[in-house]
Amino acid sequence: MAASTDRALVATLSRASKAGLISVAEAAKALDLAPAAASIQLARLTRRGWLSRARRGLYVVLPLEATPGRSATTADPWLLAHQLFAPCYIGGWSAAEHWGLTEQLFRLTLVVTAANVRATNVGNLGHEFRLFRVPRSRLTDGIVMEWRGKERVAVSGMERTLVDCLRNPELCGGARHLAQLMQAYGESPKHNFAKLEAVAKHVGLGATWKRLGYFAEQLWPRETALLTEARKHITAGNSKLDPAVKGTGKLVTKWRLVVNRSEDDRAIIGPDMPDIWVKRSNSFDEARGADREFWLATSPEVRLAAVEELRQHWAQLKGISHEGLRRTVRVFQAPER
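RESULT FIELD:
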């Protein structure tokens, strides 16, 4: 009798949930209960294995056909992010993937949030998130709503994604990936330089315009209006192309930008750096050759880290447990002499 009652409650909660997620307030409305009573019911169903607690006040409704007590997960990390970290939007490298600006695979979903969160990296229900905190006032310009199944979630548009990454290159993994995004945007039939300029005026800083002008001059030299506008917004002092990279580089006085790069990074676009990372290939063989050349130029540690990231991404897609690569195969003890 209790099992059938539980199944009826779970069915009601499932219909009211958003991608399998339901809050106490939503459960109270669906069950026609006071919030306190709904919270008690959710806790009871969780103890019996019908629900799983994502965080305080948020639960995952397991499918009715699932065995009670089974580990819970959600199919779409975007939907989970909007429940966990609201107010927020999907941005940076995750938005760049969505808009087709990069083919790079990132294990973590990047979330720009105004929520009071302390951690930078958060794992929940089988998904991993990289959080970047901003004031609530920065959650508006250039943000669009995209459908994910039956729900709509906020994501930075193409132009806002670029401006965010120009302001904080860490949001796309550094200046090397930023160079790729900029070139891909210019080659996209959906590019709109006037819109890019407008978004930069709303949320960009002096360093944003310096990086934008520098890249635009290399990639889009005919966009004179954009270059002129970038020059107007340059602030005093010098900025780094990639703030995360230690050390100095060559100062481009025109843009007051220090073009610094890491030891393993041969990708920064510049007039004195002919080894451009973003390359066009005329055949698959040529592309494979360029790819091999790039990886051979990196250190063993960088290659190992890339393999490990791909293994973690594969394990996440397959829904299986993941163990890191073994760094030590066998330890031999030398005989005493």
